[in-house]
Every structure is written in C-alpha cells, then in structure tokens.
Amino acid sequence: MPELDDAEIGAALEALRNGAAGEVDLEARLAELHARAGASGTGRRWGTGLLAAAAAVALVAGSVAVLDRGEDHVVTAPAEELDIGHDDGAKADLDRAVRATLDAPGWVAEIGNGIGRTTVTYQAPNRIDSDTIDAGGERLSRVVIVGTESWSSDSSGWVPGQRDWRTIAPLTLLDALSSACVATWRSGELAAWDGTDGCARPLGDALDGTDVWIVVLDAAGRLARIDVGELRSDAVDPDTPRAGLNRLGRLPIGARLSVEFRYEDVPEVSVPAEAVADDAAARELHDLMIGAFATLGWAPRPCCSHPADTRSAQLAFGVDGLEVPFVGAPVEALTFDHDGAPAVFVQHNDHVVEVRPVDLAGAPGVAGTADRYPFAAFTCGGYLWMVGGLFGSDGPPLDADLVISVAADFAGALACEPGERPVAPGHGDPHG
Amino acid sequence: VSTREFDEFYRAEYPRLVGLAVVLLGHRVGAEDLVQDAMVESYRRWDRIGGYDSPSAWVRRVLVQRVVKVTRKRSNERVAQLRAGPMRPAPPTSLVGLDPSVLACVQALPAQQRAAVALHYLEDMSVRQIADELDIAEGTVKAHLSRGRAALSESLGRVGAEGSVSDA
Lengths: 432, 168
Description:
The complex is a heterodimer. By secondary structure, chain A is of the alpha+beta class. Helix content of chain A is 23%, strand content 29%. Chain A is built from 8 helices and 21 strands. In chain A, the strands form 3 sheets. In chain A, strands 1, 2, 3, 4, 5, 6, 7, 8, 9, 10, 11, 12 and 13 form a 13-stranded antiparallel β-sheet that branches. In chain A, strands 14-17-18-21-20-19 form a 6-stranded antiparallel β-sheet, covered by helices on one side. The longest helix of chain A has 16 residues, at 6-21. Chain B is mainly α. Helices cover 74% and strands 0% of the residues of chain B. In chain B, helix 1 (3-25) crosses helix 6 (111-123) and helix 5 runs antiparallel to helix 8 (138-161). Chain B starts with a helix and ends in a 7-residue tail after the last helix.
C-alpha cells in the first residue's frame, strides 16, 4: 500500500482547503454580514439553547420535541445585565443548590421548551419517571427507572432497557451546571454559562453561542427554576431566521427551555404493572451484550475524562423497527420488527455504532453495505447480530472496514465465528 | 468600525477560513456559517481587533472554538436523537468542488485529530500553539498528530494509488 509523506499530506489538505475556498460567494456573504451587523439591536439577545435542547433530551431520558419555531423565540436581556463575571461565591451557591436538589427526597421537574412540556419525577434514591408528549401530541411515551432497571413505553407497550439511566437523567443538566462559570444575576438568581473559552471574561463578552442558564433558587437554597438560552449578539427574527440557525443537524431552534422544580407532593415512582412481566430472555441478552461490551472496553463509564463527555451517553438502546435496504440485493429490504429485542448503540471513538440482535435462526454471516450506511451481520446464539454504522457523531458515516472490524471484535467477544456465506447471494459488498 | 478596512480583511480571510473550516469539520455543511459567525463577531469588535498584530489569528481562534463546540454539541445531540426516536440517516454532505475521496479521508479522522492535523498542515502551527488553540495538553496534540498523520498517510496513499489524490 503506498503511503504519503508529510509534504504530500500537506499538499492534499491544502488542495482540499483551496477547493472549498474557491466556492464561496464572497461579496454576497460580505453583504450578508453587514446586513446582520446592522440589524442587530443595542442589547445582546438570547436565542434558544442548542445544548439546552440536547440536555433536555437527556433530562427526559429520550424524548424531544422536534418542532417548528415557537413564539417564545427570543428573550432580550439588557446589555448591562450581562456585564457580570465569574465569582467563586456564586459558584459555591450553585454547587450547594445542585447538591441540595440531588439530596432532596424527591422532586418533580416540569420541562418546557416553549412548545411541549415534559414532567420528570425524581425520588431518591434513583427512581425516575418521565412523561413526554411529542410535537404533535400524538405520541405519549414514558420512561420509568427504578434502581438500575429501566422501562420505556411506546405504542407497543413497555420495553425493558439495559441502560442505567441514572447517569443521564437528572444528573445531566446538573452536571453541566457544576462545570459552569457562575455569577450573581439578580437577588436569588444566578447566571451560569459554559466555559468553553474560560471564565475570565464577563458574560457579556463571551463568545456568541455560549450556553447560558439562569438559575432561580428557592428559600431552601435548592433549584427552583432554570431558564436555558444561548448568548447571541445578533437579533434573531423568528420570521426570518437565517439559514445558519439550523446548520449542522442541530436540533431545531424554536423554543426557550425552562425547567421548574417542585419538592412537594412528589408522586411515588413505581414499576409499571406491564413491565413486571419482563422478558427474561431479553434481559439475559442485555446482560450478554453488556458483558461483551465490557470485554471490548465499551462498558458505560460513570464519568469521563473530559467534562463535556459527561453529557454523552456511552450506550443507549432502541426498539424501533428498522428497515435496511440492501444494495444490489435480489430482495429490496429486510424489515426487522422488534418485539422487545434490544439494539445497542455504542459510541466508539467519534462514531455511533449500532449492535442489534435479530432472531433469524440459521442465517449465516454477511458483511455488506446498506443504503446509507454499512453494516455487518453474523449469527451467534440463535440470533443474527447486526453491527451497523449509523453515522459518525461528528458527521461522516461509518467506514465499512471499521464496521467489519467492530463486528469481528464483537463476535470474538461473544466467542462466535462470523459465517462466511451471505444471507442470500448478492447481499452486500464487504467494502462497499 | 472602519468598514473599508474590515471589508478588505474579510475578502482576504473569509475564503481561506472557509477552507480551514471544511477541513476542521470534515465536511462542508455549515462551514461557511461558522466562519460568518466568527467574522460578525470580529466586525463588532473591529475597533479593537483591527489594531491587533494578527486579526486573522483572533478570528481563527474564534472559529476553532466554534467548531470544537459544534462538534461536541452535535455528538451529544446525535446520541440524544438515538434515544429520541427512529434513526435518521446522516444528512448528505455537499461535495461540490471538493475531491470526495480526499474529503472522506479527512472525515474518517476523529474530530480532535482532524483539528490538530488541520491546524498543523494548513496553519503551520506548532504543537504548543495547537495545544493552546484546542485547549488540550501538548502530549495529546502530539498523539493526535502522530495518529492523524499515520491514518492520512495510509488512506490518502490508497486514494492516490487509485488516482484521485494525484492532482493535489
């Protein structure tokens, strides 16, 4: 295999940069810049918090309203209110409030994003219940966690999960707060913002896009309300959002996130009746998969090396039916209907890899490329194991070779040998 | 704000920064918007930034920070979306005008590795400067550069053998 030296690598990257640079419509972009800068008001404004949306999703353990822009689109903050800097006393107050909230016997958090609302009930220790109504109000989903066991409901009923949701449910947003820069906002209110570029600058001088939480404390020093926004120096007209607002697959802009805590009349969180009759085989499979991942060093980590990683789940599970079209296959698609069969999403380096066992007895192994992403499959223990590249967490789809490599590792961990024959002749190309 | 002076700066720097953003991101989607955001920020502070020895370094730093932040956010959001509902395919990446084979090699690098490589090869930055820019340890930068270089050497070499990178 020919390899390139340093100069050749540099030349290839330079060519790539020049290729991208050559495509810009410079004068149009410059005119747009002047228009934006001229249109901005005198005060800094708040837009929707993108991280907030992600945090909200995590907070409700798997529910997000993906909607159009809402009315509560922009909140204006006077410029003078942003002329505040990090202060250790305020930080200590916030840390105490976070601890007090987590130490409380229970609370109910009403999470609103301006469009939909979600209720999360938390009971110490480790009992969590959430209800979520989706964008159109057509789907009601619920997640219940008791101890280390979790169940989620969808249209087909209760589905057991293997993930320990405790690490992402109530703690996610609170963890984010614990690593933030903090200042006093008003009496009884704190402003916290992410310290991407450090805490040295005043909030009003922080970079555009900085996530900001306004935290209201109750009389007992616990969290009473959190409003989440994003610092923006330009006005965001909800009627004419510039294209950049929805860039890069971010969750849609459109709502201000707020979380309101109450500590009284917290309902009991208990195991759903339907979930008691859990599928022992599926549970066993969960254990098998988790054990395999642990062997590969992919076990969920209670904490991570980088503060930002504490907001990333290392494992998640999905139960949605998946249709995988085969390229060049004599059949157009295989549809997997999941009757509680788990699929595990593994964050591996910068990629999210799906591992899905499908009860398809007798099917030998195959490595192929689906329509948009590569996958590998092999039989083991009476299941067809799908190892699929959903996408790279920073953009690109998984490389087929990497998927095959992951599948081989995974099969090894399961003490299985991938089969050699494809599921049917012509199914897939190992290097497609 | 000295508009004429800023406009000259913009015309000189914007295309180059877009190119850098594409390499930093590993794709073109959103690259121009990130550069534009950084430029807007510099425009608003041009009275101060225009007096710096290297205003372009200031804008580049803002850009890099934004790319890092967007990448982290996106990673979190992708995982969150997995839990939120049915899987969605990755958005198509515009490859117009770019060598898709070379871009694919860059895309294949982990985000921080890609950033370190981009700053080293395209901005001619030292290990210490990259560490400062990305807010990571120098040892980490060295590891990223070593692995990134090895990965690109092999993958670009493979592409070159197939003829695509020969024009670079």
